[in-house]
Amino acid sequence: MLNLSTGIPVTTICEMLDTINALSDNKSKIYFAGSEVEYGFMFRDACTQEQIAVLEKGVGYKLPCDYKQFLLYTNGLELLTSYISSRLCCVEEIHQIITIFDWLPNGFLPIGMCADGSICIALNMNEEGNKNVYVIYIIDDEYFRLNCDFRTFLDRFITTYGDTFWEWGATKTEVTRSEEQAVVESLLDGVIIEVF
Fold first, then answer.
1. Which tens digits make up the pLDDT trace of 127-169?
2. Cα–Cα distance list, 123 to 42, 148, 196 (Å)
3. How many CA atoms lie within 13 A of 12 on its CB side?
4. At what angle do helices 49-59 and 91-100 cross, to 10 degrees?
5. Structural domain includes residue 56
């Protein structure tokens, strides 16, 4: 993504969000899925340090720095079109998702929802390093790593306007939750089957 005024690639979360905020203010139009649509994002008021501390205490993990920068700029981000239902959740929605849904793998922090709520974007808080963004297919109970940090994910989310960004550099994890269940069930039956 390039800075609109300088043409230089943006390097920080704040620069990236400043750029798309300027585009949103200008009522830009793009061709998307064969139609001309308004290109823009709905920003929210920034999170406070206190809201972030409450979230970290609630999940038992320190948030990655790049994700904290995002929350300190905007508490969630939504597309301005009704065509795609992708969004990055506000802190309050994250608390609701954690409370309501028990399907999240241990240590995964839900940060976004896509495809009418059938896909969850999550940070794996158990992993060290910067490639901890995952996509979870809620219906199939499968997940895979996007092989990127939050900043790269955000760039892809913005570039694709929230549509199929998960196909950009994704690799399947070695074992998904449903595969783990299949192995456990087969062991309980006394028959071991190999799951690929």
1. 776 788 888 887 777 888 888 889 888 988 888 877 777 777 6
2. 22, 10, 25
3. 8
4. 20
5. yes
List the domain range (segments joined by +) for residue 46: 13-188
Q: Cα separation of 76 and 47, whole Å?
A: 9
Question: What are the tokens at 15?
Answer: 């620069």
Could you tell me which residues come within 8 angstroms of residue 34 by beta carbon, excluding any fewer than 6 positions away? none
Tens of pLDDT, residues 87-141 = 899 999 999 988 887 778 888 899 998 877 778 889 988 877 678 888 888 777 7
| CATH number reported for the structural domain that contains residue 114 in this entry | 3.40.1580.10
24 within domain boundaries: yes
**58 Cβ contact partners less than 8 Å away, ≥ 6 residues apart:** 95, 98
